[in-house]
Specification:
By secondary structure, the chain is α+β, with helices and mostly antiparallel strands. The chain is built from 16 helices and seven strands.
Length: about 400
């Protein structure tokens, strides 16, 4: 017999759940705690399934029957009511997903694959340029003209490098959303086609080898912190990136073995890097150890020892010494590359010292050699040549024989 409202109202809970059947698979499940739940039993591809239709009295008998009839109509069209409901919920969630939620999920996904500095920089750009403009917008509703306008506003303030990164990240964010089914299209494709022409800039300027002694003398005589002076010297002697040096903990150094091991998490290429230390670099680090050896970081911040020296410290010191626009911390890498290539050292040794990947991706994949012994000899000769040049010797005589 079909159910009646009075039968439902008077149904009392029992020690175990029991069913009050209506018709065509619809029944009311009465639980020991007194709850009364509508359920629809049906079959799809010979498999029995259940569909929850709500709780009584929030869902009345008439409403439950209407929901049953709607479900049976879907079954008549060879559609599974449960699958259709899940798809509808997913679509509702997708429509409500904001750009900020999608962007932060993308960032969390990418972070383990990036160097720490890259992840921090990406998050900074997200929070300063993208989220204020797009954060609360539904990701699905964002259009290409909106993105073009956003990128042009960044370009208008002369931040062309930021605009380039933003274009890349926008495309990656929407590709991520497309792959997970959160958006239907990627409105950030081909934004580079309408990119503003960036003015030609000289990246990472550096002095010539002949000018290096004067630069080092000026830094030595400058009224700057010893840590800053030492950092500049170590950049010259090792060719590492300024960020790799600034954030280096003492635990990465084995001064007795004259080796610095940088883990992949701190490297741009996401692979560990071995840096052979010439004797001059070891001497500098031993001096520094007397000052910051009780801290975790070699270049511990002045106000907060748990944080490294500011990224602007080295470039400001060089600028104050008269080298603004002529030398940056990163520029020492270019100087080292130019000089060592000019001295006919093996290109693979130089590129591995600079922690560069090979332009030939296949070769880079299979070439795992670190050339540590060869690089150790090369970098010691490099350090000795700087000492010789500073003392007035002819550096030509120190060039490596082919």
């Amino acid at each position: 017999m079909p159910l009646t409202d009075s039968a439902i109202k008077t149904a009392k809970p029992k020690a175990k759940p029991y069913k009050l059947s209506d018709a065509q698979g619809l029944y009311l499940l009465v639980n020991p705690n007194g709850s009364k739940l509508w359920r629809l039993k049906y079959r799809v591809e010979k498999k029995e399934k259940l569909l929850a239709l709500g709780a009584y009295p929030a869902v009345s008998l008439q409403q439950a029957r209407k929901a049953r009839d709607d479900a049976r109509e879907l079954l008549a069209r060879d559609k599974d009511p449960s699958a259709e409901r899940q798809a509808e919920k997913a679509a509702q969630l997708s429509d409500a997903l904001t750009f900020e939620a999608l962007a932060r999920e993308w960032h969390a996904y990418r972070t383990p694959r990036w160097a720490k500095s890259t992840a921090e920089k990406a998050l900074a750009y997200l929070e300063s340029d993208l989220l204020p403009a797009l954060g609360i917008r539904p990701a699905k509703a964002i259009t290409r003209p909106e993105l073009v306008e956003l990128v042009r506003s960044i370009e208008s303030r002369g931040a062309h490098n930021v605009a380039k990164k933003v274009r890349q990240w926008l495309s990656q964010i929407f590709r991520f959303g497309l792959a997970k089914g959160a958006v239907d299209a990627n409105p950030a494709t081909d934004l580079d086609v309408v990119a503003a022409h960036a003015p030609t800039t000289r990246h990472h300027p550096h002095v010539s080898m002949a000018e290096l002694p004067e630069l080092l003398n000026r830094i030595e005589a400058a009224q700057i912190n010893m840590l800053t002076r030492s950092a500049i010297r170590l950049l010259v002697l090792t060719g590492v990136r300024p960020g790799e040096l600034r954030a280096a903990p003492w635990s990465e150094f084995d001064l007795d073995a004259a080796i610095w091991t940088i883990p992949k998490e701190r490297m741009k290429a996401r692979r560990p890097h071995l840096v052979p230390l010439p004797s001059q670099a070891v001497a500098i680090l031993r001096q520094l150890n007397e000052i910051t050896g009780h801290h975790d970081l070699v270049f511990a911040g002045r106000n907060d020892s748990a944080r490294p020296m500011s990224e602007n410290t080295i470039n400001k010191a060089l600028s104050d010494a008269g080298y603004k626009g002529r030398q940056t911390g990163h520029g020492f890498r270019h100087l080292l590359s130019t000089e060592l290539n000019g001295r006919d050292y093996n290109r693979d040794w130089i590129e591995r010292q600079l922690a560069h990947g090979d332009a030939d991706e296949m070769r880079d994949t299979y070439n795992h050699a670190t050339y540590l012994d060869q690089r150790r000899e090369m970098m010691q000769a490099w350090a000795d040549s700087i000492d010789a040049l500073c003392s007035g010797a002819n550096v030509v005589s120190i060039k490596r024989k082919a």
